[in-house]
């Protein structure tokens, strides 16, 4: 109960954006306060006000508050638009106040939903031919204040070919503020996650996370990919074991955001040479043969059950067997002079991954 004519404050539920309301403001009720839920997307919010009637000499003022930032029309007597910048995903309400001075007014107000910017996010995973048939999960998500976007989790199977090998090139378009479309200056965590049944070991000494916000379109071809890598920024790698990541900035303004997992590796190889730079014949035809007795094979189980492969172990020189689970890929080091690996049971694809020596 109340002992005077003043209204007792009470909480009302915010209305949705895009709804038009009409307010009659008299001398007795000079101000209306309410709130509008403008949703998750980010962008400019236009508040349109139309003055239907206004007593002579009176003025009207519309004030808005978003995330602690005030906006106002100031005293006005004509129609107009007040624009509020919504730059946070987690803050989704705008407080509105309408008042008059010097007389009554009838005002129509519409708080539009945010005019969100559409951008494209490119996921690019680069790999090496030597690591063909390996696999990994590429992951990313963004955070904006307290808001955490949805995890983008993709299985990447490494392809074979000539550098640069693009094992994944994926494009997603959407409005900024959606759960999978980063907002300007938000933080993106890019990650390499060796979840079952993947088998690639991220090498922090060679592999890296890269990113670029730009208006330049880089298509999936050799020239563009090389140019993209040259222009991109490199994030700082953290983590360890089966999970490595880098927190990078989403940038501002431009239409394209590139997230690049550069998982390419380099290995030592033996090269033939001649002390005489003109003696090409010596390099070509008298190169020393491989002296390493070992050879490396890649075994990929493509069957439904366990598979067993028999080979000659390079360390002991004795025949041995290895069991490979369904969907798994294993690397073995065997004697190149011994009996090559053969399948005792199951369905296995066997390829030579290194002719001379093993990578340990």
From the N-terminal CA to the C-terminal CA, the straight-line distance is: 82 Å
H/E topology pattern? EEEEEEEEEEEEEEEEHEEEEHEEEEEE
Low-confidence stretches: 1-11
Q: How many E strands? A: 26
Question: What's the average pLDDT?
Answer: 88
Number of domains: 3
Q: In what range is the share of β-strand residues?
A: over 45%
Task: Supply the number of helical segments.
Answer: 2
Principal-axes geometry comes out as elongated
Q: Which structural class fits the helix and strand makeup?
A: mainly beta
Main sheet overview: 6 strands, antiparallel
Helix content percent band:
under 10%
Q: What is the CA-based Rg, rounded?
A: 32 Å
Structure summary:
It contains two helices and 26 strands. It has 360 residues and is mainly β. The chain has three domains: 15-111, Jelly Rolls (Sandwich); 118-262, no CATH class; 291-354.
Written account of the structure:
The chain folds into 3 domains: 15-111, Jelly Rolls (Sandwich); 118-262, no CATH class; 291-354. The protein contains 2 helices and 26 strands. It has helices spanning 222-231, 280-285, and strands at 15-16, 20-25, 31-37, 43-54, 59-66, 69-72, 80-86, 93-101, 105-111, 118-127, 135-144, 147-148, 152-157, 165-175, 187-193, 208-214, 233-234, 238-240, 243-249, 256-262, 294-301, 307-312, 319-324, 329-335, 342-345, 348-354. The strands form 6 sheets. Strands 11, 12, 13, 15, 18 and 19 form a 6-stranded antiparallel sheet that branches. A hairpin with a 2-residue loop joins strand 11 and strand 12 (147-148).
């Amino acid at each position: 109960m109340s002992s005077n004519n003043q209204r007792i404050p009470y909480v009302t539920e915010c209305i949705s954006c895009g709804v038009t309301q009409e307010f009659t403001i008299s001398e007795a009720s000079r101000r209306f306060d309410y709130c509008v839920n403008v949703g998750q997307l980010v962008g400019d919010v236009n508040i349109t006000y139309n003055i239907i009637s206004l007593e002579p000499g009176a003025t009207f003022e519309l004030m808005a508050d978003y995330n602690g930032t005030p906006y106002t029309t100031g005293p006005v007597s004509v129609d107009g638009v007040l624009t509020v910048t919504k730059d946070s995903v987690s803050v989704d309400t705008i407080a509105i106040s309408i008042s008059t001075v010097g007389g009554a007014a009838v005002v129509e107000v519409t708080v539009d939903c945010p005019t969100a910017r559409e951008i494209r996010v490119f996921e690019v995973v680069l790999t090496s031919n030597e690591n063909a048939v390996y696999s990994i999960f590429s992951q990313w998500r963004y955070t904006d204040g307290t808001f955490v976007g949805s995890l983008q989790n993709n299985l990447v199977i490494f392809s074979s070919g000539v550098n640069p090998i693009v094992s994944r090139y994926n494009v997603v378009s959407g409005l900024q503020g959606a759960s999978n479309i980063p907002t300007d200056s938000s933080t993106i965590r890019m990650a390499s996650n060796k979840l079952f049944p993947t088998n690639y070991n991220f090498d922090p000494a060679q592999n890296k996370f890269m990113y670029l916000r730009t208006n330049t379109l880089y298509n999936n071809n050799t020239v563009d990919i090389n140019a993209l890598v040259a222009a991109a920024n490199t994030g700082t790698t953290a983590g360890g074991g089966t999970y490595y990541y880098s927190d990078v900035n989403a940038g501002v303004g431009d239409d394209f955001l590139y997230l690049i997992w550069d998982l390419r590796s380099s290995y030592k190889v033996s090269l033939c040479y001649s002390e005489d730079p003109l003696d090409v014949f010596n390099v070509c035809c008298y190169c020393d043969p491989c002296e390493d007795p070992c050879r490396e094979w890649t075994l990929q189980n493509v069957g439904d059950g366990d598979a067993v492969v028999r080979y000659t172990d390079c360390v002991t020189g004795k025949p041995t067997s290895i069991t490979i689970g369904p969907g798994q890929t294993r690397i073995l080091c065997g004697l190149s002079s011994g009996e090559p690996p053969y399948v005792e049971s199951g369905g296995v694809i066997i390829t030579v991954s290194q002719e001379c020596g093993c990578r340990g």
